[in-house]
Write a structure and sequence with these properties.
Shape of chain B: globular
Largest sheet of chain B: 8 strands, mixed
Number of domains of chain A: 3
Number of helices of chain B: 26
Helix content of chain A: 25-40%
CATH architecture of the largest domain in chain B: 2-Layer Sandwich
Number of strands of chain A: 14
CATH topology of the largest domain in chain A: Uridine Diphospho-n-acetylenolpyruvylglucosamine Reductase, domain 3
Radius of gyration of chain B: 32 Å
Strand content of chain B: 25-35%
Strand content of chain A: 25-35%
Strand order of the largest sheet of chain B: 3-5-1-12-9-10-11-22
Strand order of the largest sheet of chain A: 4-5-10-6-7
Structural class of chain B: alpha+beta
Distance between the termini of chain A: 55 Å
CATH class of the largest domain in chain B: Alpha Beta
Distance between the termini of chain B: 108 Å
CATH topology of the largest domain in chain B: Aldehyde Oxidoreductase, domain 4
Oligomer: heterodimer
Number of domains of chain B: 4
C-alpha cells in the first residue's frame, strides 16, 4: 500500500493553484486534508502525476460570514468550522451534522471543500450543502463561477468541477428566522459512512428533505407542509425515487425503510424547532 | 525455633502470583521503545518485497510475463511459480489427499489474493510499481463460494485430482446414540451457519528472510507466533534440515489472536525471494493484503440435533458439520474441527454422541487459527440449540442448564468424545452469574419493555474453554488405521529456562512468542515467588531463536497455553534451580537442604533465620567458587524444564481424544434491546463469569476477557469477510470489514471463581479465548429471545447487522403511489454473494439501423466506449482494447477484450467485455435491445458484471453505482455518436414536483 510516484507542490495562493491546474488539468489533484485522497493514492486507485497541496495555503484558510452565508475557504479544516463559537446559531444544521462525520481526528485534518469536491454520496457535508441549497465557488485561471449545490453534485464522486478548476470556497446559507433544522444519520458504527443520512429544513414555505447514502448524490425533496398520511406517501415515493442499491452492508429495501423512518423523524424535529423559535 | 523461622519466611516474602501487578512491558511500549518486527534494524542491502496477488477467485495460471517488471527501476528480482517449484516443495497437510499448496500459485489460483509472484526491489515503492508491469494470463474458472455449492455433484473442483471438494469426511460415534435418540420423547434440531471472520491485529505480518548460500540454509526474523510444530512444515517446504531454518521472533507484537500463524507461508515465500535476489528480503503485510489473504476463521454449516427428555435433560447429541476452509487445506487445518472434538458435549453430561465432520474447499482465503479457534463454531451450534430446546419444550433455559451441567462431584469428568474435564463447579458459576449479574432485574426490564411493545431479550451461553492443546488431536482427522501407520502423536511440550548470572541476578527465557498478553510480567511474578525475590529482580526474555533456545513442538502463543503450561513450566524450572541453590547454600551453612528458605531477597536456614545471606551472594558463589559446591553437584546455574501434561494421550482406537489439558468454564448472560425501527441491537448488560482455575494476575485476566469480549461483540454484530457470487472479496478495508470500536463495546460485568486445575503446575487454566466462544452465541440467543414476540425466529445468522435484524423483524415496504418501473431485485449468487447488475434505457434520435451500425463499426466503437484508447480487431466482432475506466478520481486502465455476439440486426445484440488491470479483473456481459420509436430508437440494456480484485475489495460500497455510471456513459456516447444528443430525460425532481402539484 504505497502510492505511485507523484510530484508535489505546496501552493501559496489560489492563483498559483489555478495556474498549475490550467497547465496540468486532470493529471493534477488538489491535496487538502488528504482524508480521502491519501487512501486512494496509497491503494493506487488513482495515480495523479501532481499533487497541489493547499492545506497550508494561508489565503484559503478562512471561515467567515459573507452576506447571508458562511463562507469556508479551501484550506479550512472541518474542525475549524465545527468549533466556531457561533456555529449553532449561524448554520445549525452543520452543528448537528459534524459529530457524525467520522471521528474528530479525521475532522482535524479533513477540509470542508475537500469533502465537497470528493462528493462521496454518503458524506455529510455535501448533504448539508444540498439541504441548505448552498453554493460552491469554482475558480480557474479564466475566472470564477458559482454553482448551486444541486448543479455541482453530478453523481457518485462526480461533480461539475472542470479539470482546471479549484473548489475555492463553499458557502452555507445562514439560518433563517422561523426555520427549523434537523439531522439524523444511521450507520453501523459511530463514524462510519452513512447507510442513510437525512437533513430537514422546515420553514414557512414548506419542507426540504435531503437524503444521503442512498442515491448517487445527496438528493433533495421539496414539499409543501405535509402531515400524516400525505407525508408518509411523499416519503415513500421519495424513498423509491432515490433508486437505492444493495451493497454488502444494507439492502435497497432496508435503505428505503430508513429513509421513511429517519425522514419522518427529522421533519418532525425540524418542525418542532420552527415552533420553538416563534 | 523452626516455627520462628517459618514466621520470618512468611513475614519476609509476599506472594506476587495472584496480584494485579502492572505490566513490565508497558513502560517501553508507551514510550515508543517497542521492538516490533517492522522496527528492527535490517542488514545493509536488505531489499523489499511486494506480492502480486490473484484478482480471480479461481483461474488457471497460463503464463506470467515479468520481463517488463524485471527491468523496472530499482527491481532486483521477480519470483514466480517456476522458482518456487525448483527450490521448494508443497506444504505438508493433515489429511492424505492429492492436492498441493505451494507458497506461490504454480498452475492455478484458488482465491482472490493468492500470491502469484513476488517483486523484490530496493524499496517497497519500486516493488509495487513493478507489480503493475507483470502480465499474467489467467483462464477464469467458475468459482465455488459456499459449502452448499461446493458439495454439489456438479460443483467445479478446486483440486481435480481429489475428485471432490470434500477433502476429509470422518464420522464418529460415542456411547449408544441410536438408542438414546429412539427412546427420547423429544428431538430438537437446528441448522446454523457461522460466518467467516477474523480477529484483526493492528500489526500485519512481517518477514525478514535471508538465504545463506551453500548449505547454510535460511535465517528468518518474523512475527510468526507458532505453533512451532509449523517450523517443521516450513523447513520441509524449504527442503532444509530444521536446524538450517533459523527462525527468530521479536520481543513485541502488535497483536496476533491466532492470526499470525498465517505468516508461515510467507516465511517460506520470502526465503525463496531472498534466494532469487541474492540478498536479504523484507516484507511487511499491508492492511489490504491482510484482510484479503491472510486467514479467516472457518465458516461452518452445522446441523445439530439433541435427544431430550421431557424435563430438559439431553441424552444424546448429533452433529453434522461442514467446515469451509477456503482454497487450500493449510496447516494446522482441519484443526478447527478437532481442537474442540473431545469436548463437543460442552459443559454437559451427555453420554451419547455422533459426529460427522466434512472439510470443504471453497474459493476463499485459507482458514486458520483465529482466537477461540473452533470454539465459536461449536458453541454457536450447541448453545443456540440450548435456546431452542427451552423454546420448544417451553422450559426455563436456566432449568435446562442446571439439569445438564456436569455435576461438581464428577470431576475430573471424562466427556463422551474423550475430553477429561479437569475441574470446576459449573452450577456454582451459574448461581454466581444469576445473582451477581442481576438476572432478576433484567427479567423485570424485559417484562416492562415487552409490555410497552419494545423488543428486549435475554440470552445465555455456557461453555467449557479448552486450553493447552494436545498436539495429537489433529490426528483425529485420520482413521485409526492411518494413525497406526503414522505413529502416535500427543502431548503439549512447554519449556522454560531460568538462570542466574555472575552477580546473582535471575533471567527467565520462554518460547511462548507473546503477542501483548503480558507474558514477561507473569513469568517475573512466578519466578519471584519461587526464589523469594521481587518481580523487578527478574529479567524475562521472550524473544525466540530456534537455533539457540529451548523449545519444542508446542512452542508458541496459542490455545491459551501460557498460564497453564508456560507459566507452570517457569515455576518448575525456577523450583529446580531453587532446589539446587538450596543444596549449595545448605552445604555452605552446614544445614539440611530442606531447611533452606528463600524470602525477601535472602537465603537462610529456617532453623537460624539470623544467618541469612543476600540472594545474589548465595546464588553467585556457584559461578565464582565451584570448589564450594557439594560433592556431585553439577556446574552452572541454568535449569531448563520441558513439561507436558500427563493427561494428553494420543487418540485411541475408538477415536476418544482428550483434546486439551485444562478446561475452564464460562457462563454468560446478555440482555439486549432491539430497535424496532432500525434493527439495531443495543447490549443493555453483559455478564460473564469465568472459572479458569488459579488466576495468576487478575488485571491481565480481566484484560484478556475484555479483549475477547470486544471481539465477540464484533463477531456477533458486525464482522464478516464477504464474498461476491464470483468469489470476489468485498471486505478489504476497515470501512467494509467492521470491527467494534470503543463506542460500540459496552463494559461487561466480569465475575470470577477459582477452581484450580489438578493437571497444571500452578492450577491455572487459559481464559483468553472464552468470550470469543461464548459472546457471539450469547448475543444471538438474546436477540432470538428479543424477537420472540414477533414470531418464532430460529435461523439467527451472524453478524446481526441492523439490516439483517430488520429483515428478521420484517420491513413494511409499500409500493410507491404511482406506477414506476420497479427496480429489479438483485440477482443473488449461489453463495449468497450479489451479482452486480445494471439496467437502463435511453432514447436516441436516430433509427435502430444507425445505432446498430455504430455498434458494428470498430472506428465508431472506439469513440463510444468510454476511455477507449486503442481498439484492434482480433476476429470478426472481437476486439482487443485498452480502456481506462474511471469514476471520480478513481481510474483503472484495463487491457480488455470486447466481443459482440447474438447479432440480430437491427434489434438486438450482446456486448461483452472482460479485462484485467492493476486494480483487478472485470467482466461484463449484457443484452442491448433496440426498439424503433417515433423519435428514433429506444435502447435498453440489461447487464450483469463481475468485478474482483483490489477495486472490489476496497470499493464494494460503490461498485454498483460505478457500474451504472460506466454503462450510462457508454450508451449516452453511443446515442450521441449515432444521431446527436440523446433525447433528454426529464429530471427526477421536476417529475416529482409536478406529481405533487408543487412544480412550476
Amino acid at each position: 500500500m504505497k502510492p505511485g510516484a507523484f510530484d508535489y507542490i505546496r501552493i501559496d495562493s489560489a492563483e498559483e493553484a489555478c495556474e498549475l491546474l490550467a497547465q496540468y488539468g486532470d493529471d493534477a489533484r488538489i491535496l487538502a486534508g488528504g482524508q480521502s485522497l491519501m487512501t486512494v493514492l496509497n491503494m493506487r486507485l488513482a495515480q495523479p502525476g501532481l499533487l497541489l497541496d493547499v492545506s497550508r495555503t494561508a489565503p484559503l484558510d478562512y471561515v467567515r460570514l459573507q452576506d447571508d452565508k458562511l463562507a469556508v475557504g479551501a484550506a479550512a479544516t472541518q474542525a475549524s468550522v465545527e468549533w466556531r463559537a457561533g456555529l449553532a446559531g449561524e448554520v445549525p444544521l452543520l452543528k448537528l451534522a459534524f459529530p457524525h462525520i467520522s471521528h474528530f481526528q479525521v475532522r482535524n485534518r479533513g477540509t470542508v471543500c475537500g469533502s465537497i469536491a470528493h462528493a462521496d454520496p454518503s458524506a455529510e457535508l455535501p448533504l448539508c450543502l444540498a439541504a441548505l441549497e448552498g453554493e460552491v465557488v469554482l475558480r480557474s485561471k479564466k475566472g470564477r463561477r458559482v454553482l448551486k449545490a444541486g448543479q455541482f453534485f453530478q453523481g457518485m464522486l462526480l461533480t461539475a468541477r472542470r479539470p482546471d478548476e479549484l473548489v475555492e470556497e463553499v458557502r452555507y446559507p445562514l439560518a433563517a428566522t422561523g426555520t427549523g433544522y434537523a439531522f439524523e444519520e444511521f450507520s453501523t458504527r459511530h463514524g462510519d459512512f452513512a447507510i442513510v443520512a437525512c437533513a430537514a429544513v422546515v420553514s414557512r414555505d414548506g419542507i426540504r428533505l435531503a437524503v444521503g447514502g442512498v442515491a448517487d448524490r445527496p438528493r433533495v425533496a421539496r414539499w409543501p407542509h405535509l402531515e400524516d398520511s400525505a407525508l408518509d406517501a411523499a416519503l415513500n415515493d421519495f424513498a423509491w425515487d432515490l433508486e437505492a442499491q444493495d451493497d454488502p452492508h444494507a439492502s435497497a429495501k432496508y435503505r428505503r425503510h430508513l429513509v421513511r423512518r429517519l425522514g419522518r423523524r427529522v421533519i418532525q424535529q425540524a418542525s418542532a424547532a420552527t415552533s420553538g423559535e416563534k | 525455633m523452626r516455627r520462628d523461622g517459618q514466621a520470618v519466611e512468611a513475614g519476609r516474602q509476599t506472594s506476587f502470583v495472584g496480584r494485579p501487578l502492572e505490566r513490565v512491558e508497558d513502560a517501553a511500549l508507551l514510550t515508543g521503545r517497542g521492538r516490533y518486527a517492522d522496527d528492527l534494524g535490517v542488514k545493509p542491502g536488505t531489499l523489499h518485497a511486494a506480492v502480486l496477488r490473484s484478482p480471480h477467485a479461481h483461474a488457471i495460471l497460463k503464463a506470467i510475463d515479468s520481463s517488463r517488471a524485471q527491468t523496472s527501476r530499482g527491481v532486483r528480482a521477480v519470483l514466480t511459480g517456476e522458482d518456487v517449484r525448483r527450490w521448494s516443495q508443497p506444504f505438508v497437510v493433515g489429511v492424505k489427499q492429492p492436492m498441493e499448496h505451494w507458497s506461490l500459485a504454480v498452475d492455478r489460483v484458488r482465491y482472490v489474493g493468492e500470491p502469484v509472484a513476488v517483486v523484490v526491489a530496493e524499496n517497497r515503492y519500486a516493488a509495487e510499481d513493478a507489480l503493475d508491469l507483470i502480465r499474467v494470463d489467467y483462464e477464469p474458472l467458475a468459482a465455488v463460494v459456499s459449502v452448499e455449492q461446493a458439495i454439489r455433484e456438479d460443483a467445479p473442483l478446486l483440486h481435480p485430482a481429489v475428485g471432490s471438494n470434500v477433502v476429509s469426511d470422518r464420522s464418529f460415534r460415542y456411547g449408544d446414540p441410536e438408542t438414546a435418540f429412539d427412546r427420547a420423547p423429544h428431538r430438537v434440531r437446528l441448522t446454523v451457519h457461522y460466518p467467516r471472520n477474523s480477529c484483526t491485529p493492528i500489526e500485519g505480518g512481517v518477514v525478514i528472510a535471508e538465504y545463506l548460500p551453500g548449505e547454510e540454509g535460511y535465517e528468518v526474523t518474523s512475527n510468526f507466533m507458532g505453533p512451532f510444530s509449523l517450523h517443521a512444515v516450513m523447513a520441509l517446504a524449504l527442503r532444509v534440515p530444521a536446524a538450517r531454518l533459523r527462525h527468530k521472533s521479536p520481543r513485541d507484537s502488535g497483536g496476533s489472536f491466532g492470526v499470525k500463524q498465517s505468516v508461515f507461508p510467507y516465511v517460506v515465500l520470502m526465503c525463496l525471494a531472498s534466494r532469487k535476489a541474492g540478498a536479504p528480503v523484507k516484507w511487511v503485510e499491508d492492511r489490504l493484503e491482510h484482510l484479503t489473504a491472510a486467514t479467516s476463521a472457518t465458516g461452518r454449516l452445522a446441523t445439530i440435533e439433541a435427544a431430550v427428555e421431557s424435563d430438559g435433560r439431553i441424552v444424546a447429541l448429533a452433529y453434522d458439520q461442514f467446515d469451509d476452509v477456503g482454497g487450500y487445506l493449510r496447516a494446522p487445518e482441519p484443526a478447527t474441527f478437532y481442537r474442540m472434538h473431545g469436548c463437543l458435549t460442552g459443559a454437559y453430561a451427555i453420554p451419547n454422541l455422533t459426529v460427522r465432520n466434512r472439510v470443504v474447499l471453497t474459493n476463499k482465503t485459507p482458514a486458520g487459527l483465529v482466537r477461540g479457534f473452533g470454539g465459536p463454531q461449536v458453541y454457536f451450534a450447541l448453545e443456540r440449540l440450548m435456546q431452542r430446546i427451552a423454546v420448544e419444550l417451553k422450559l426455563d433455559p436456566l432449568e435446562i442448564y442446571r439439569r445438564n451441567l456436569v455435576p461438581p462431584e464428577a470431576f475430573p469428568y471424562r466427556a463422551a468424545a474423550g475430553a477429561l474435564l479437569d475441574s470446576g463447579n459449573y452450577p456454582a458459576a451459574l448461581k454466581l452469574a444469576e445473582h451477581e449479574g442481576g438476572l432478576a432485574e433484567l427479567k423485570r426490564r424485559r417484562d416492562e419493555a415487552r409490555a410497552q411493545g419494545r423488543l428486549y431479550g435475554i440470552g445465555f451461553a455456557a461453555i467449557v474453554e479448552p486450553s493447552i492443546s494436545n498436539m495429537g488431536y489433529i490426528t483425529t482427522a485420520l482413521t485409526p488405521a492411518q494413525r497406526a501407520k503414522a505413529g502416535p502423536k500427543n502431548g503439549a511440550i512447554a519449556s522454560a529456562t531460568v538462570s542466574i548470572d555472575l552477580l546473582g541476578s535471575v533471567s527467565v527465557v520462554v518460547a511462548s512468542a507473546p503477542a501483548g498478553q503480558g507474558h514477561m510480567t507473569v513469568c517475573a511474578q512466578v519466578a519471584a515467588d519461587v526464589l523469594g525475590l521481587k518481580p523487578e529482580d527478574i529479567t524475562v526474555n521472550v524473544e525466540l531463536d530456534t537455533q539457540k533456545d529451548a523449545w519444542s513442538v508446542a512452542a508458541g502463543n496459542y490455545s491459551s497455553r501460557f498460564a497453564g503450561a508456560v507459566a507452570g513450566t517457569v515455576h518448575l524450572a525456577a523450583t529446580k534451580l531453587r532446589d539446587k541453590l538450596a543444596r549449595i547454600a545448605a552445604h555452605q551453612l552446614g544445614v539440611a537442604p530442606q531447611d533452606i528458605a528463600f524470602a525477601g531477597g535472602e537465603v537462610f536456614p529456617r532453623s537460624a533465620p539470623e544467618r541469612a545471606i543476600p540472594f545474589a551472594r548465595a546464588a553467585s558463589s556457584a559461578h565464582w567458587a565451584p570448589a564450594l559446591l557439594p560433592q556431585g553437584e553439577s556446574l552452572g546455574l541454568r535449569e531448563t524444564v520441558f513439561w507436558t501434561p500427563e493427561s494428553l494421550a494420543a487418540p485411541d482406537e475408538q477415536d476418544h481424544i482428550n483434546t486439551s489439558a485444562a478446561y475452564g468454564f464460562a457462563f454468560d448472560i446478555c440482555a439486549v434491546e432491539v430497535d424496532r425501527d432500525t434493527g439495531r441491537v443495543r447490549i443493555d448488560r453483559y455478564v460473564t463469569t469465568h472459572d479458569a482455575g488459579k488466576i495468576l494476575n487478575p488485571a491481565l485476566a480481566d484484560g484478556q476477557i475484555r479483549g475477547a469480549f470486544a471481539q465477540g461483540v464484533g463477531a456477533a454484530l458486525m464482522e464478516e469477510f464477504r464474498y461476491a457470487a464470483d468469489g470476489g472479496f468485498q471486505s478489504g478495508t476497515f470501512a467494509d470489514y467492521l470491527v467494534p470500536t470503543a463506542c460500540e463495546v459496552p463494559e461487561p460485568l466480569i465475575l470470577h471463581m477459582e477452581t484450580p486445575s489438578p493437571f497444571t503446575p500452578l492450577g491455572a487454566k487459559g481464559l483468553g479465548e472464552g468470550n470469543n466462544m461464548s459472546t457471539p452465541v450469547c448475543i444471538a440467543n438474546a436477540v432470538a429471545d428479543a424477537l420472540s414476540p414477533i414470531g418464532d425466529v430460529s435461523d439467527i445468522r451472524l453478524p446481526l447487522t441492523p439490516a439483517k435484524v430488520m429483515g428478521l423483524i420484517g420491513i413494511d415496504d409499500p409500493a410507491p403511489s404511482r406506477s414506476r418501473e420497479r427496480a429489479t431485485e438483485p440477482a443473488m449468487g449461489d453463495g449468497g454473494g450479489r451479482a452486480l447488475t445494471a439496467n437502463g434505457a435511453i432514447e436516441i434520435a436516430a433509427p435502430p439501423e444507425a445505432v446498430f451500425k455504430v455498434l458494428l463499426d470498430p472506428q465508431a466503437l472506439v469513440q463510444v466506449i468510454p476511455g477507449c484508447h486503442a481498439l484492434q480487431a482480433v476476429s470478426e466482432n472481437r476486439y482487443r482494447a485498452e480502456v481506462t475506466v474511471g469514476v471520480g478520481l478513481v481510474k483503472a486502465r484495463y487491457e480488455a477484450e470486447i466481443a459482440l455476439s447474438e447479432l440480430d440486426p437491427p434489434r438486438s445484440l450482446r456486448l461483452a467485455g472482460s479485462g484485467l488491470s492493476a486494480l483487478g479483473a472485470a467482466r461484463g456481459s449484457g443484452r442491448v435491445t433496440l426498439e424503433a420509436i417515433p423519435t428514433g430508437t429506444r435502447l435498453s440494456y440489461d447487464y450483469r458484471a463481475e468485478v474482483s480484485g483490489k477495486v472490489a475489495a476496497v470499493g464494494s460500497r460503490m461498485l454498483e453505482g460505478a457500474a451504472k455510471i460506466v454503462l450510462a456513459q457508454l450508451f449516452e456516447r453511443l446515442g450521441r455518436h449515432a444521431g446527436g444528443a440523446p433525447a433528454k430525460r426529464e429530471s427526477w425532481w421536476k417529475r416529482l414536483l409536478r406529481l405533487l402539484g408543487w412544480g412550476k
